[in-house]
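STRUCTURE:
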């Protein structure tokens, strides 16, 4: 009984102490803000820029959207600076949660230069941390989910590598007011289990830059991510099916030259299937003007399938073309057709001979193309 009583008494004393501490903290902060000018940067009296130290923790890295040339990122943006106007006599730091109170304190107008859309996480509370120490050091941490633009080059798609960046700067304050720099230790922090869909993160680099604009020179920070596309998905979904489609088109070379329904159905079906597959690939990419590696491959496959269809047209025409000149037929060793001499003579043997040549010519040409295509594109891909 007595133990429970003392436990409750200690709990009440703790709550009362916390309430007293919060009340004291609020009084100190309100006293400091009476003469505080939120429109003046911390080092305005010294006529020097305020140094803003920035550190980023990449919580997650969304997949790159090739069609829109952007990517999403979930990042903890942590900013540190010193505001001597907030020095106080408390022996602990103050965490300010009140949004109205936060608005009364000067903060850098940091923004993402290449942002398309962004929002601050608000579940279950706004993910904002505003901490002030008794020496005036401020930590302003915000969790942001942003969609950033990334200029991509698809000449070697799907064996391409991309460089995407995060560029942050001040929107209105020049380098005479705000100077950004990375923290010395671990400016960019990444989780060990970070994964990016369809890409491998080869590395990253952080740098400080001066951005000259018409409105002035602005201090900025930049993070470059080196990404390489994983091509396993495209090998299974694009290259293997197209190889099978082209191989099926060669089956017509083993059919009789007069087998019109079979050879036409094979040629038309493979051509339409390949066209549909190529249309699906184009929907994943922006309509760029240059030729991509996937365009070269699909284009060659179409040439092979269309060539097989044209070969059948020529073979069928030869198989049904009559030879009216008997002397001409006698000069041609493969002119005989039919079971008797009164049967009309055609070029069917020449048509069959053309089919036999095509059985080796088409696969050989496609194999030669592969010997050129894969070393050319994979050499640059492996060097990245």
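SEQUENCE:
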């Amino acid at each position: 009984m007595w133990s429970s009583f003392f436990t409750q008494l200690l709990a009440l004393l703790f709550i009362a102490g916390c309430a007293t501490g919060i009340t004291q903290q609020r009084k100190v902060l309100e006293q400091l803000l009476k003469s505080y000018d939120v429109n003046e940067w911390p080092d305005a009296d010294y006529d020097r820029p305020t140094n803003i130290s920035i550190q980023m923790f990449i919580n997650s890295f969304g997949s790159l959207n090739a069609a829109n040339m952007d990517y999403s990122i979930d990042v903890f943006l942590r900013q540190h600076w010193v505001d001597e106007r907030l020095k106080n006599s408390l022996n602990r730091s103050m965490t300010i949660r009140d949004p109205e109170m936060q608005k009364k304190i000067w903060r850098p107008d940091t923004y993402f230069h290449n942002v398309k859309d962004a929002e601050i996480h608000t579940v279950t509370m706004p993910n904002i941390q505003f901490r002030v120490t008794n020496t005036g050091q401020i930590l302003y941490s915000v969790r942001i989910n942003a969609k950033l633009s990334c200029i991509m080059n698809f000449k070697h798609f799907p064996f391409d590598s991309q460089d995407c960046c995060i560029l942050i700067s001040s929107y209105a304050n020049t380098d005479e007011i705000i100077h950004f720099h990375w923290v010395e230790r671990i400016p960019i922090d990444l989780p060990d289990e970070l994964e990016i869909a369809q890409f491998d993160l080869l590395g990253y680099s952080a740098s400080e830059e001066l951005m000259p604009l018409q409105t002035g020179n602005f201090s900025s920070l930049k993070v470059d991510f080196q990404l390489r596309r994983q091509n396993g998905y495209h090998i299974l979904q694009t290259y293997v099916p197209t190889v099978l489609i082209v191989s099926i088109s060669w089956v017509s070379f083993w059919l009789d030259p007069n087998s019109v329904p079979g050879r036409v159905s094979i040629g038309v079906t493979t051509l339409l299937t390949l066209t549909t597959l190529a249309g699906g690939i184009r929907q994943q990419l922006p309509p760029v003007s240059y030729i991509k590696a996937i365009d070269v491959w699909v284009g060659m496959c179409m040439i092979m399938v269309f060539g097989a269809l044209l070969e059948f047209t020529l073979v069928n025409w030869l198989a049904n073309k009559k030879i009216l000149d008997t002397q001409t037929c006698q000069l041609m060793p493969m002119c005989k057709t039919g079971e008797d001499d009164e049967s009309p003579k055609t070029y069917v043997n020449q048509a069959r001979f053309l089919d036999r040549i095509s059985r080796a010519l088409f696969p050989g040409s496609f194999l030669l193309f592969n010997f050129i295509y894969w070393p050319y594109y994979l050499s640059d891909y492996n060097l990245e």
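REMARK: Confidence is low (pLDDT under 50) at residues 9-21, 337-343.
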